[in-house]
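Continuing the batch. This is chain 6 of the set; chains 1 through 5 are on the previous pages. Same settings as before, nothing changed between runs. Recording input and output for traceability.
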Amino acid sequence: MKKVLFIDRDGTILREPPVTFQIDKLDQLEFLPGVIRNLYKIAQLKIFEFVMVSNQDGMGTKSFPRDAFEAVQSKMLDILRGEGIEFNEVHIDNSLPEENKPTRKPGTGMLGKYTNGDYDLKNSFVIGDRKTDIRLALNLGCGSVFIRNYEDPGELEQSVTFLCMNWDEIYAFLVPQRKALQERITKETNIRIAINLDGSGKSDISTGIAFFDHMLDQLARHGNIDLGIKAEGDLHIDEHHTIEDVGITLGEAFLQALGDKRGIERYGFCLPMDDCLAQVAIDF
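Output for chain 6:
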């Protein structure tokens, strides 16, 4: 079953003007830090459909002309589309709070298709920065991600699935880091490897072979992978058992951490040097 991210617009994707809370001019179009980068990464995993749900109070009236809204909306969607971020649907309600229309958040009047049993709402989320977003999640029967922005969740805080300050935190919550721990014990070696494919390039490596440690550190550093390797081997005989078994264990750790390999794309290159040509083919 499909999972959905019901994403608010103002205050969640775009920064809201602090006085009017109405984005009706192109020079007010400003994205929240990290939103494009993280939405792109989430989109690449193809786990969630993206649905925009927004209240635009009185849009279409003299004080908030529809043309002004559409200019900002169209530009925003064009920018996101250019960065590989597509919304499956966009739902905008232009009523005023006192009208109490079922289409206005936290009402679900615009989202009937998502409640017919074809979607995994239990594992879907509403992402927003207003109490109405929390209540929408409760009405849909899905989780909620609340960005602490202009409004405090107040008495609804206990109903929020995840409280956060920015989109980096949202990504880390929605997409658990790909981690693995592998051990290998043989007559020749005792090896323990911890890996985090979504790390920051930190390493703690000790194999007893200084140059091998250095090369493994480069793998972590340039791959932006957190890597911990502790290896004890029969170095008094030779180095090859240690190197071979670390390679086997590291490969097993990669395999475990990659999981279903969702979002992985094939990539490779061949680099000839002045005095030699080395070729390696790796296929995940």
